[in-house]
Structures are given as structure tokens and as C-alpha cells.
TrEMBL record:
Descriptive protein name: Aspartate aminotransferase family protein
Cofactor: pyridoxal 5'-phosphate
Gene3D superfamilies per the UniProt record, alphabetical: Aspartate Aminotransferase, domain 1 (3.90.1150.10), Type I PLP-dependent aspartate aminotransferase-like (Major domain) (3.40.640.10)
InterPro entries assigned: Aminotrans_V_dom (IPR000192), GrpII_AminoAcid_Decarb (IPR050477), PyrdxlP-dep_Trfase (IPR015424), PyrdxlP-dep_Trfase_major (IPR015421), PyrdxlP-dep_Trfase_small (IPR015422)
This protein's record includes keyword Repeat: no
Naturally occurring in which organism (per UniProt): Actinomadura nitritigenes
Domain of life, source organism: Bacteria
Domain Aminotransferase class V: start-end pairs: 112-277
Region named Disordered: 1-28
GO MF terms, alphabetically ordered: transaminase activity
Keywords: Aminotransferase, Lyase, Pyridoxal phosphate, Transferase
Record's keyword annotation contains Transferase: yes
């Protein structure tokens, strides 16, 4: 029952089982043309990565020459191993240049090039934990809208999370942050912006509170870090949010989002180089080569590094200003257009081209809208209800988003959704799922359970509106357990 990755039940069509002939390694190598043809066939069910019809996951400049250059640079660095910078000095040169470019726009500091926002956040949490040890179990203060990567980092690194609420505009509450800080708090988090509604947290206030308590403060600017500076250049009001803000001690910025580099490319910056060093890992406790890693991974391709450097330099500062202006203008036109669609409203006041749309009409179901849009060739990302925030649809808008076509698709999908009505979910299904002992089921048993409620991992099954409505009616812990089992069954074959 997918949500975060939105793997539709029909998306696994043609999925070979682990024991099928299709998955067996051939005795002799197959021709390249044959393999590329099969790869193209396997990708037929994938969402398109160009054209602007997918409003999540992908970022498109609309500049094919830039994408082609990035692919070439990726291939040039493909086999270079970032494990040992002394063996491949090109990775040091490229990382220095990328980190310097990002630091130049985000208030300075020193940093690390990573595979994405989750790794950047993981390193920020590790740096805070190890740079400022506490007597008890270390803790993080997180607003309700903070990215799950912080929960993942806490889970992996042995920290506890203290949640704080957001206000009516979905901004973190500084007074709640202050009240949540304890002697064991090692990190306070703010978002610039938070992903769900594109809303800026009050970074200055939160950083000031953290500094007064002697606690480090991380700003998650993974999605906003490479669009907010360019919007500021254009004269738009952008509140201070980066390392220039007193009390902000680290910040993350994804270059594979509004930097338009291929996945995965991100940077985490630290105001204090000692905290950056605390994010590193070293081990000499074995007889092999000495291990020293700046990031979570050891061996990894330098392809993303080369592609990110090429993309940054090919687009240039003026190119990013132009792309930011186009995306933000599109977002503002989209927000104005949503107001003209009966029953729909925008949540909060987006500071970047991220927009969340909810329904005020019980007869107009956002999950059904997503299905109707998918049938029309569009992907709108569903977001489940959480702590009083209603279920909604998320739209990430970029330089290629066609706002008129998007609004038309949304209006058509809403009209069809109203005619279809909310999903028909059996009244006792939620109770049954909430009380289910998942530990008694292996993957095959869980697959059979899914089939019993109409979800076929090999194709067919209900529309995603049914699945998301079921998930929406369950508490987060039950959602998580079901999603883990779904993913396990999906990959089990």
C-alpha cells in the first residue's frame, strides 16, 4: 500500500519472480542492442522524467543541451571511485568547486558533497551528536513538518525525537521549540522551506532559541537551498535562512532538485569545520586499507559529482535566476488558478514553487483527483493527513511546468472526481488492518492478503485512491508497518 514512492499496484507489471527464467544470468553475454531494448521495455510503465506532467520526484530545466552535457559528464566520471581521494584527485577538485559555489550562496561554511538530502541530513545529525556529546541519550527537536530523513537519521544513529507543532500557516512554533529543548538536545531543526506545503519556518527565531540554549541548529534547505538565493536576487522577499543567520550551524541543499543536476547530488554545509569533521567516519581496526569516509557511503561512483559540476557551470547564475523566476511565476499563477476551482484550496503561503492543494468539499476527494489525473497523463503526488493537516496533493513546479495545461488537468480531474465520489472502502477494513498481527505473515502471506482486498502486485487491482484512503484512515505507526510489508512483498517476487 504505497505512498511515499507511490508505486501503483499496476506498476510492477512484468515483474519476474526470483526463480523465473527471466531473472537468470545468461551463460553467455547478450548483445548490447538486445539489452537496451529490454531496458526500454521495462521503463514503459515508468513516469516520464521530462515534459512537466509529473509534479514530484523530477526536475526539468527544459534545456536538453544541459541534460545531455550532464549525462556525458556523468559517464566520464562513472568509474572513478570516491572511496580514495588520494587515488583520484579529480574528485577533490570537483567537490571543492561545488561546495564553494554552494557556500557562496548560502552564507559560507565548509561542506561535504553527498548523494542526496537524506545523506546530507544524516551527516548533519551525526556531526551534531559527535561534536557535542551529552550525558544521556541525545535528542533532536523536530517540527511536525520536518522531513522523515531526520527520523531515519535518529533511528540509525540512536537519537530520540521530540516533536513540536506547527501553527495555522504550517510554520514551526518557536515557543514550542524552546519548551522542547532539554539538556540532552543536540540539534534543533528548521526547514527552508518544509516540503509538504512549501512554507518557510521562522529560521531566525528558532536559531536564536537554539543558540541561547547552547544547541546546534540545522536548516533543511534541501528543496529550497538552490532556488531561494536566486529568488532573492530577483528582488523577491526571502527571509534570512542560511549560515549567515546567527545560530544556524549547518544547512543542507540538494543540487538534484532546483539545481537540476542528475540524482544524486546534495551538499551539507557546516559553520564550524570541527562539526564537519565530526560527521566523518574513520576506522583503522582491521588489517586492510585504512577507511576514512566523509559521507555515509564508501565506494561510490563520481558520476553524480561530475554531472553536478557540469550542470552548475552550464546553467550559470543568470540561468538559475531565469529558471527560478519562471518556476515561481508558474507557482503563483497556479495558486491563483486553484482559487477558481470549486472545492479546492491552497495550504499555507508557499515561499518556493511547491504548492499543496486540499479539498474543503466532502464530495471532492483528493485521492480520487490524483487517480483521475493519472488517467489523463498527469501525476499529482498524494499526501496523507497528519496532526490536523488535511490530506492534499503536492505540486513541485519547475521551469517547464505549463500552468494552463496543469490547471486544466486539475479542473478536469476534480470534475471527474466529484462525479465518481469518494472511494468505496469497506467499513470494517480499517479495523481489521489496525488489529492485524503482521509478524504472523511472511511475504507470500501478505501478498495474499493484498489480493484479498483487491491489490495485485503483478498488475491490475484498485485505483490508488482506495489504497491511499485506507492508509489515510490509519495511525502513522500502522501506515509505516503496512508500507514496510508492502515494499518487502513487492521486491520479494
Amino acid at each position: 500500500m504505497p505512498h511515499e514512492h507511490e508505486v501503483a499496484p499496476g506498476g510492477a507489471e512484468g515483474r519476474p519472480s526470483s526463480g523465473s527464467a527471466e531473472s537468470a544470468l545468461p551463460e553467455h553475454g547478450r548483445p548490447a542492442a538486445d539489452l537496451l531494448t529490454e531496458l526500454a521495455r521495462l521503463r514503459e510503465a515508468d513516469l516520464p522524467v521530462r515534459g512537466g506532467h509529473v509534479t514530484a520526484y523530477v526536475y526539468d530545466t527544459g534545456r536538453e543541451a544541459v541534460h545531455d552535457l550532464a549525462a556525458t559528464a556523468f559517464q566520464e566520471m562513472l568509474e572513478v571511485n570516491c572511496l580514495d581521494p588520494t587515488a583520484f584527485p579529480s574528485i577533490v577538485a570537483l567537490e571543492r568547486r561545488i561546495v564553494s559555489a554552494v557556500a557562496g550562496r548560502l552564507g559560507g561554511g565548509t561542506g561535504i558533497f553527498t548523494s542526496g538530502g537524506t545523506e546530507s541530513i544524516m551527516l548533519a545529525v551525526k556531526g551534531a551528536r559527535d561534536a557535542r556529546p551529552v550525558a544521556g541519550r541525545p535528542r533532536i527537536v523536530l517540527p511536525a513538518t520536518a522531513h522523515p530523513a531526520f527520523h531515519k537519521a535518529a533511528h540509525y544513529l540512536g537519537l530520540d525525537v521530540d516533536h513540536v507543532p506547527v501553527d495555522a500557516g504550517f510554520r514551526a512554533d518557536p515557543s514550542a521549540v524552546a519548551a522542547a529543548i532539554t539538556p540532552d538536545t543536540v540539534l534543533v531543526v528548521a526547514s527552508a522551506p518544509s516540503y509538504p506545503q512549501g512554507v518557510m519556518d521562522p529560521v531566525e527565531e528558532i536559531a536564536r532559541i537554539a543558540a541561547a540554549a547552547g544547541v546546534l541548529c540545522h536548516v533543511d534547505a534541501c528543496v529550497g537551498g538552490w532556488v531561494l538565493p536566486w529568488l532573492r536576487d530577483l528582488g523577491r522577499p526571502v527571509p534570512p535562512f542560511d549560515l549567515s543567520v546567527p545560530g544556524v550551524t549547518s544547512i543542507s541543499c540538494d543540487l538534484h532538485k532546483y539545481g537540476y543536476a542528475p540524482k544524486g547530488a546534495s551538499v551539507v554545509l557546516f559553520a564550524d569545520e570541527a562539526v564537519r569533521r565530526a560527521a566523518y567516519f574513520a576506522s583503522a581496526e582491521w588489517p586492510g586499507y585504512t577507511v576514512i569516509n566523509a559521507g555515509v557511503q564508501s565506494s561510490k561512483s563520481a558520476g553524480p559529482l561530475g554531472a553536478a559540476w557540469a550542470t552548475l557551470n552550464a546553467v550559470g547564475a543568470q540561468g538559475y535566476r531565469d529558471l527560478a523566476a519562471t518556476a515561481m511565476d508558474t507557482a503563483e499563477r497556479f495558486i491563483a488558478g486553484v482559487a477558481g476551482i470549486p472545492g479546492l484550496r491552497v495550504l499555507g503561503d508557499p515561499a518556493v514553487p511547491l504548492v499543496a492543494v486540499a479539498s474543503d468539499d466532502p464530495a471532492l476527494d483528493v485521492f480520487t483527483i490524483a487517480d483521475e489525473a493519472r488517467a489523463r497523463g498527469w501525476f499529482f503526488q498524494p499526501q496523507l493527513a497528519y496532526q490536523g493537516i488535511p490530506p492534499n496533493l503536492h505540486f513541485t513546479l519547475t521551469g517547464v511546468s505549463d500552468v494552463d495545461a496543469l490547471l486544466s488537468a486539475l479542473a478536469d480531474a476534480a470534475k471527474a472526481s466529484r462525479a465518481a465520489g469518494p472511494p468505496d472502502v469497506p467499513a470494517d477494513l480499517l479495523d481489521a488492518l489496525a488489529g492485524l498481527d503482521l509478524d504472523t505473515l511472511d511475504d507470500a502471506g501478505f501478498t495474499g492478503l493484498l489480493a484479498a482486498v483487491g491489490v495485485d502486485l503483478d498488475g491490475g487491482g484498485p485505483e490508488m485512491a482506495v489504497v491511499n484512503t485506507v492508509l489515510n484512515g490509519l495511525p502513522p505507526a500502522t501506515r509505516e508497518a503496512l508500507l514496510v510489508r508492502f515494499l518487502s512483498a513487492l521486491y520479494a517476487g
